[in-house]
Each structure stands twice: as C-alpha cells, then as structure tokens.
Amino acid sequence: MSVALITGITGQDGSYLAELLLKKNYKVVGMVRRSSTVTFERIADIQDDIIIEQGDLHDQSSLVDLLERYEPTEVYNLAAQSFVPTSWNQPVLTGEVTALGVTRLLEAIRQVVPRARFYQASSSEMFGKVLEVPQKEETPFYPRSPYGVAKAYGHFITVNYRESHDMFAVSGILFNHESPRRGLEFVTRKVSHNVARIKHGLQKTLPMGNLDAQRDWGFAGDYVEAMWMMLQREQPDDFVIGTGVTQSVRRLCELAFGRVGLDYKDFVTSDESLFRPAEVDLLIADPTKAKTTLGWEPKVDFESLVNMMVDADMERMAAKLKQ
Ligand code: NDP
Ligand code: GDR
After folding, report:
1. Which domains, and CATH codes, for the chain?
2. Shortest-distance atom of ligand 2 to CA 275
3. E strand or H helix at 108, and its extent?
4. Which residue CA neighbors atom 29 of ligand 2 most closely?
5. Count of alpha carbons within 13 Å of 229, Cβ hemisphere only?
6. Whose CA is nearest to atom 21 of ligand 2?
7. What is the pTM of this model?
8. Cα 274 to chain center, whole Å?
9. 12: Cβ below 6 Å to ligand 1?
10. In angstroms, what is the span from residue 320 Cα to ligand 1's centroid?
11. Residue 318 has what pLDDT?
12. Atom of ligand 2 at shortest distance to CA of 178?
C-alpha cells in the first residue's frame, strides 16, 4: 500500500490533496503542529480516514520520528508560513519554516527513507518582479518578499538534494490557486467572504489594497492533481502549474460583486495599509511543459472559480444567520 505523509494537511491544499490520495487508496498520514485549539475545519469530513500526528517543521526530531514510524513512499511538503504580507512582519519565522523547514525535512528523508518521493510546494512568488512574460520553468527568479525569498531557497535545496543525493525530489512551481477553503486573508476569499457579508447587510464597505495587481488564478482541486502526477513520473523533474490566463484584482471584485447583483465601485475603498512594500505586479504562467509532459490541464476557469467561491460564502453566511 502506498503511504503518503502530508505536511500542512490542515491548510487549503493539504485538505484537497488528502481527499485525492484517499480516493486512490493511499494510507494518508497528516502532520499537524500542536495548538491550543483544533484547526481541523478543512479536514473534518475525512478525519476518521486519515492518521493525524503531531510534528513541526521547526523540530527535526519530530520529522525523523514520523518517517521512522510510517515509512512513507511519498512525502508532500505543503507546510509553510504562506501569507506574503506576514513575511515582512515575521521574516525570520518565515525563513525558519518556509525555507529551512524544507532542509530539515529533506535531511530527515535522506537519513530515514531515502527512496521516498518528495514534493516541494514552490511558488510563482519566486518570479516576483518578472524577468520574462509568461513565466516558465527556466525563467530566472526575482522574489519580492521574504516569503518569495524563502520559497526560492526551498526550491533550490530541493533541486540540490536531487542532484547531490540522487533523491526523487521535485518542485512544483504553482501559481495562485483558490477555493471555498482558501484562508480568509488571501484576496479571493477576502472578496468572496465580504461580498456575502455586504449582500446580507452586515457591512457597507470593503477596504482593499492594489486593485491593479494581476495574478494567474486557478482552482486548488485541479492543482493537487498536478502534485500527485509529478510524483508518479519515472524521472524527477520540476513543473510550472498555472492556467496561462491572468486577471486583475479589480476584475476579481467586478465578477464577485456582480455575481450577487452588486457593483464593486459602490463598496470597495482604498486602504494604503494593504499595499505591499514591494509588489508583484504581473504573474502569468506558461504551463506548456505540464500539458505536454505531465498531461495536466486546469478544468476550472476564473469566472467559474469566482462564482464557486461567492456561492459557497453566500450559503455559509445564510446558514450562519439562520442559527
Ligand atoms: P495554507 O496557509 O492554507 O496552509 C499552510 C499549512 O502549513 C497549514 O496546515 C499550517 O498549519 C501549516 N504550517 C505552518 N507552519 C507550520 C509549521 N511550523 N510546522 C508544520 N506545519 C505548519 O497554505 P496553502 O494550502 O494555500 O498552500 C500550501 C503550500 O503551497 C504552502 O507551502 C504555500 O506556501 C504553497 N503555495 C501555495 C499557493 C496557493 O496559491 N495556495 C501557490 C504556490 C505555493 P496550521 O493549520 O496549524 O496553521
Ligand atoms: P499572493 O496572494 O500574495 O499572490 O500569494 P494574495 O491573495 O494575498 O494577494 C494577491 C494580490 O492581491 C493584491 N491585493 C490584496 N491582497 C490581499 N491579501 N488583501 C487585500 O486586501 C488586497 N488588495 C489587493 C495583493 O497586493 C497581491 O498582488 C498567494 C499565497 O497563497 C502564496 O502562499 C502563494 O505562494 C502565492 O499566492 C502564489
């Protein structure tokens, strides 16, 4: 039986990936960090079907212990301090978890289960102030935040373990992907959640940052399939995963408010504090290699994604108000 260890299983991607692997009959072990309250909201439906173990990317011995006990055949490293603005306020923590955490895990794998296949959650934020449009596997990195810098480290240490130790270690350079399970602080979910609040009369305005930023947004459910596919190949390799279409934050607002019959211009205000010290202005993927070599293609387009998220938040809000 294939055994998968997922770090970051309580996050957006961890929950979708765990569901996918369960469908494929994997034994799924999820690593969670200790907290005083339970953070299992996203995995509530599958909690009885997976094994949950405590561990932390800060703590090498917890990683070694998990690998020794479960001997996973695949390890997906999804855990990270993943919110870009927080990385300016907590740059050292971001480096510890998002960068050095990758080395801790790779080193533990090298010592305990060197034949295990390893997936690193790399990010389009590594392209930052882009040196090429669209961005592909060979595009040089120019990260613009401590988060982007930490992810570039995680990317290269993964490549380095592959080349130094002959490990099956790969990096998926994923562009933004969203879902109704997205954290509330990320822009798509912030907008869908607040559209539902405004439509239900709970607030009047929505303060936003840079509406001109452009991102290549896809659906998280599609992207976890690419992670799995990358570990099934004969040879380890890195892939850019995205839709190849870019949209502005303004267009996101227009579509999300439009979904409930409102005009975003009547509600969205500008808040200087939400602008970033250094912005990533334009991201757009060239997913040709993923399509031709991996056979991966996104199934959900941007408008369907926005509709899915707004509809889910409208339902959640209506249910909450009924209570
Ligand atoms: P989330 O922020 O939703 O999830 C992050 C996960 O990491 C959570 O489970 C969190 O646990 C866990 N975590 C944080 N710190 C630690 C730690 N010290 N030890 C162990 N676990 C920890 O992220 P996503 O699901 O959106 O993203 C998954 C990965 O993919 C991340 O590495 C992210 O940087 C990367 N990525 C994401 C993209 C996206 O658009 N979503 C695009 C490209 C890359 P807890 O629940 O306790 O907070
Ligand atoms: P990002 O996602 O930084 O791309 O990182 P986020 O949704 O936070 O921002 C996208 C763009 O929207 C602009 N923006 C705002 N963003 C937020 N959060 N809140 C606002 O009010 C707001 N107004 C405008 C931002 O300036 C930015 O340009 C995400 C994370 O999931 C990373 O972990 C991942 O690596 C990358 O995507 C790919």
Report:
1. 3-177+218-241 (3.40.50.720), 182-216+245-279+301-322 (3.90.25.10)
2. 26
3. helix 101-112
4. 176
5. 19
6. 208
7. 0.99
8. 21
9. yes
10. 27
11. 97
12. 31
Q: Is the shortest distance between the CB of 171 and ligand 2 below 6 Å? A: no
Q: What is the pLDDT of residues 107-133, one digit of tens each?
A: 999 999 999 999 999 999 999 999 999
Residue 138, CB-side half-sphere exposure with 13 Å CA sphere: 2
Decide whether any atom of ligand 1 lies within 6 Å of the 82 Cβ: yes
| Closest-lying ligand 2 atom to the alpha carbon of residue 124 | 38
Residue matched to tokens 């380095």: 160
Residue ranges in the chain modelled with pLDDT below 50: none
Q: Which amino acid would we find at residue 210?
A: N
Q: Which two tokens stand for residue 68?
A: 């020794």
pLDDT confidence of residue 284: 98
Does ligand 2 come within 6 angstroms of the Cβ of 126? Answer: no
Alpha carbon of 41 to those of 7, 72, 321: distances in Å? Answer: 16, 25, 19
Task: Give the catalytic positions in this structure.
Answer: 123, 125, 147
Q: How many CB atoms lie under 10 A from the CB of residue 261?
A: 7
Using only C-alpha atoms, what is the Rg of the chain? 19
pLDDT on residue 316: 98
Q: ∠199-201-205 over CA atoms, to 5°?
A: 80
